[in-house]
């Protein structure tokens, strides 16, 4: 199943000075958050990506055109570096389509502009390119494909760092509660969408703000509640928190790292990939 990733946003809350890179290219460890999202999908066998580019699109293209497998994979070097044997590979099986969808384009219009690359597909996956999760995407896809809904969105609790303030008519505070303790769910940015979406998504419209309310009125939109790990990277604080998890070795979103190195407690054997340079 193809994965459409919206990676052309400005990411103004992430910026600390002049920076030409879009938010999905901000790094966690040695790789951009976009790479982490793509590796998540690849873990479930979805290795065909359509990147909806906008602001900083050249940075995304340049990154993958000059991609270095040795940065995130173990390898054996011989002949003074003339021969490299990769012990694992990230993107050798990936197919990536890079599409310029405009600078100030809405998410819905970005999706409409890559429709020609989805014509042969009954359904596809979509993502904002800057949120991480450990949600069981295989089970979600199976559920959506056997139901009569047109689209699903991952529903997650709001971040615990926000607090809801309750006060009386005199503005005296009567209570403070963490937003995470309320029975409130937010859009987690992971979508499974069938091609019928294009029947309700019109030119220059937003996907969530315009098309989804129509699907909701038709009872064709489903929320998939997820109580596990989910984290956005909208701010420098959130990026720092993800960096801390990465450095500690606690990377709940990195499902591939668990399966790639062990299966039932044993190492998985993989044939080396030879790269001559």
From TrEMBL:
Stretches that traverse the bilayer: none
Domain Nucleotidyl transferase positions: 2-230
GO molecular function, one term: nucleotidyltransferase activity
InterPro entries: G1P_cyt_trans-like, NTP_transferase_dom, Nucleotide-diphossugar_trans
Highest taxon of source: Bacteria
UniProt keyword list: Nucleotidyltransferase, Transferase
Pfam family, one: NTP_transferase
Name used for this protein in its record: Glucose-1-phosphate cytidylyltransferase
């Amino acid at each position: 199943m193809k994965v459409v990733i919206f990676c052309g946003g400005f990411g103004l809350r992430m910026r600390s000075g002049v920076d030409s890179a879009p938010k999905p290219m901000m790094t966690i460890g040695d790789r951009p958050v976009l790479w982490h999202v793509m590796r998540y999908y690849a873990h479930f066998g979805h290795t065909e990506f359509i990147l909806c580019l906008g602001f900083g699109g050249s940075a995304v293209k340049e990154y993958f055109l000059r991609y270095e497998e040795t940065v995130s994979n173990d390898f054996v070097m011989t002949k003074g570096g003339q021969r490299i044997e990769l012990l694992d590979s990230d993107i050798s099986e990936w197919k990536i389509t890079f599409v310029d969808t405009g600078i100030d384009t809405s998410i819905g219009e970005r999706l409409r502009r890559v429709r020609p690359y989805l014509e042969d597909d009954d359904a596809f996956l979509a993502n904002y390119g800057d949120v991480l999760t450990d949600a069981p995407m295989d089970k979600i896809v199976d559920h959506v494909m056997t139901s009569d809904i047109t689209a699903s969105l991952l529903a997650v609790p709001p971040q615990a760092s926000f607090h809801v303030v309750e006060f009386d008519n005199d503005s005296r505070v009567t209570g403070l509660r963490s937003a995470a303790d309320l029975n409130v769910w937010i859009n987690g940015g992971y979508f499974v969408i069938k091609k019928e979406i294009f029947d309700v998504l019109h030119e220059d419209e937003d996907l969530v703000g315009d098309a989804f309310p129509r699907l909701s009125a038709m009872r064709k939109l489903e929320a998939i509640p997820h109580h596990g790990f989910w984290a956005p990277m909208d701010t420098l604080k959130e990026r720092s928190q993800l960096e801390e998890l990465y450095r500690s070795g606690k990377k709940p979103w990195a499902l591939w790292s668990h399966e790639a190195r062990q299966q039932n407690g044993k190492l998985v054997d993989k044939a080396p990939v030879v790269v001559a340079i």
